[in-house]
Structure formats: structure tokens, C-alpha cells
Amino acid sequence: xxxxxxxxxxxxxxxxxxxxxxxxxxxxxxxxxxxxxxxxxxxxxxxxxxxxxxxxxxxxxxxxxxxxxxxxxxxxxxxxxxxxxxxxxxxxxxxxxxxxxxxxxxxxxxxxxxxxxxxxxxxxxxxxxxxxxxxxxxxxxxxxxxxxxxxxxxxxxxxxxxxxxxxxxxxxxxxx
Amino acid sequence: xxxxxxxxxxxxxxxxxxxxxxxxxxxxxxxxxxxxxxxxxxxxxxxxxxxxxxxxxxxxxxxxxxxxxxxxxxxxxxxxxxxxxxxxxxxxxxxxxxxxxxxxxxxxxxxxxxxxxxxxxxxxxxxxxxxxxxxxxxxxxxxxxxxxxxxxxxxxxxxxxxxxxxxxxxxxxxxx
Lengths: 176, 176
Description:
The structure is a homodimer. The first copy, chain A, is an alpha+beta fold. Chain A has four helices and seven strands; from the N terminus they run βααβββαβαββ. In chain A, β3 and β4 form a beta hairpin.
């Protein structure tokens, strides 16, 4: 008999999330050690100064364990632009649509906060082919490449998605 | 008789530089109030955690008064890439070559610290035409544009300069 596992989402940030984020980002198998520490430091900064840090989080939990998360926030000195700093899933939860669910919920949060453009950066390394396909599948378009940005032969790829309220949220004649 | 004013450079950061940076950035007439505060906050961060902040400064002083400055640092998670976060001159000192002098000294510092690429970002607004020309004159090339990044109609323009030791620092047959 198939087991039905409920996924719960939360946006509050707890002390133990510093380690949670380290665990998720490490388990995704995608990131260097210094990148893992950068991811963890954003949680610390959020715990220290609250939402004034500019870091907002969405955690996906199953059976009391975080299985994926995203971190995003408004880009300073811009009117409506947001950065998706991190989105990562625990290894065993990859490839099952949870990433897209987290992404959709982040976009809804950005929209609620007044954002209309969501940026995400990734690497040109072949290891990131699935990541880039993930963004493209989720409606992001390639905006720019910065050659040799990370390392020689490793470019920074910048994607952007224009975020709008979904049709169903704008009642038209059919909904009245 | 022409007065000869000596320009002194320093890289250490003092408590009063928070206000100095506010003054310079405001007097340049180029930045919004929230941008001025971002500039000042980088000095505060540097004073709080030292060079671990990733923010390095170069101040140009004349007659004991700071007349221009730059702030730059290594971009996290990259091998050799640096960001020039700020370069600004007090209004009366613009257009006399001091900007290029500060830029050259920053490049030397970046090189010493192991950097080989220096990035700088600016706006596509007509107000920034002289800024973009300044970067181009100083050997930066246009690397990417992010449309409507700052505000609708106000793109982010990314320049990069590949930094190498100047010929004179590499003794060849002529120098031996």
C-alpha cells in the first residue's frame, strides 16, 4: 500500500536551521564547502537581525524533517527585483517535483512582497545542466553570462523570471 | 603661482570614514539615499569584522580631507573575481584624472591579493553616461546587461576588466 507523505511548508526560521541548511546543501551534492558555509551564514544573519537581513526562507518538511528549502530576498537599491539565493533539496527528494513546488511558493511570496522579477544565478559547468534545465522548465529565461566568473572555464549564468499574479487570482467574467 | 596639492592614499579604515563615505557619495550627486546608506554600511561592516568582511578600501586624501575613495573585494565562491563595489569622488574633484588614479591603485591591490578579474556594475540611465565612459576609458569592457534590473527602464550594466601585472613590473631584456 502506497504511503502518503504530507509536505508541510514554513517560513519562520529556527536556530537549528543553520545545521539543517548545511545538511541539505551538502546532501544535494552540488556545492563546494565554502558555498555550504555561505548558505549557512544567511540563516545566521536572518536569526541575528530578522527580516531586515533581506533573507527570507521557505522550508519544506516531511515527517518533521526538512527535505528542501529556498532562500530569497529583495535586491538592495532596486525597485522590484528579487534574488533567489538558494534552492536545494535533500538528495533523495530530487527529481520528484518538490523543487517546482518550492519555486512556485517562493514566487507567490515575492509577489506578495511587491517583487516582479526573480533572478537566479548558476554555473555553466556540465554538473549544473539539470539545474539550468530546472530553471528553464520553471519559466526562467537566460538573461546573461559572465565568462570565467567563478573560475577559468566556469561562467556565471543569470536567469530571470517575470512574476505575475496567476490568472485564477484575478477574477474575470467567468469567475464572477 | 600654482599651488601643488599632494594626494595621499591610505587603505586603513577609521571610525570617521562612515561619515566620510556618506559625504563623498552624497557629494558625487549620483546616488539615491538608500544607496548612500549601503555605501556607509560597508564601512561599518569592515570596522566590525575587519578584512574578513571582504570589503577593502582605498581613500584619497588632500590636505587632510578625503576627496575620493573606492571599495572592492573578492567575490565569495569565485577563484579570482573581485567586485569594485564603489568608486566615488567629491564633486569638486571630478574630471581631473583622480578617478583613474584610484582605479589603477585598486587594480594593483586586487592583483596583489590574487585577483585577475575586476567587475563593476552601473546603471543604464543617461545620468551614468560619464560613469560608463569612465570605465571604458579605464579598460573595462561591457560584459552583460540585465534589463529593467533597478527599475523599469533602468538596466544593470556589468563591466569587467582582466587585470595583469603591468609590463614594467615584469623585467624583460630591456630592464635587465
